[in-house]
Amino acid sequence: VQAAASGGGMVQAGGSLRLSCAASGRTFGTNGMGWFRQAPGKEREFVAGISWSGGNTIYADSVRGRFTISRDWARTPVYLQMNSLKAEDTAVYYCAASKSPAVVTGADGADYWGKGTQVTVSS
Fold it and tell me: Burial letters for 87-111: b for 16+ Cβ neighbours within 10 Å, e otherwise?
């Protein structure tokens, strides 16, 4: 059971990308989900989380106002719209699902992980 991220790529600073997260092995329609990222030489960090219904969302301070996490009501695909990208957003981005329907607020609340997708922002 995995939550696999896709949609990464290379973009110039100020540009946009939209990441997608799909399930493998099951659906995550009743699960909270979140996005995380890990830059080279740095710890993995929380980016954004969403509840099972999409009604509750939370963002890291570093991305609030630039990134938007979304999902259709109780559907597995979860998206991360990233606007006004900066060089410091460069990282491998991962999505994860929780066993709980509540919004994912950190790695402790994430139970299912999968492969990440590389985002590179050139300045």
Answer: eebbbbbbbbbbeeeebbbeeebbe
Task: Let me know if 42 is exposed, middle or buried by CB neighbors in 10 A (0-12, 13-18, 19+).
Answer: exposed
| Tens of each residue's pLDDT in the chain, 123 residues | 788 999 999 999 999 999 999 888 788 888 999 999 999 999 999 999 999 999 999 999 999 999 999 998 777 789 999 999 999 999 999 999 999 999 999 999 899 998 999 999 998
For residue 27, CA distances in Å to 16, 48, 71, 97 come to 28, 20, 13, 10
CB 2 within 8 A of CB 25: yes
The answer to whether the CB of 86 falls within 8 A of the CB of 73 is no
Beta-carbon neighbour count of residue 25 at 10 Å?
Answer: 9
Cα angle for residues 97, 103, 25 (degrees, 5° grid): 20
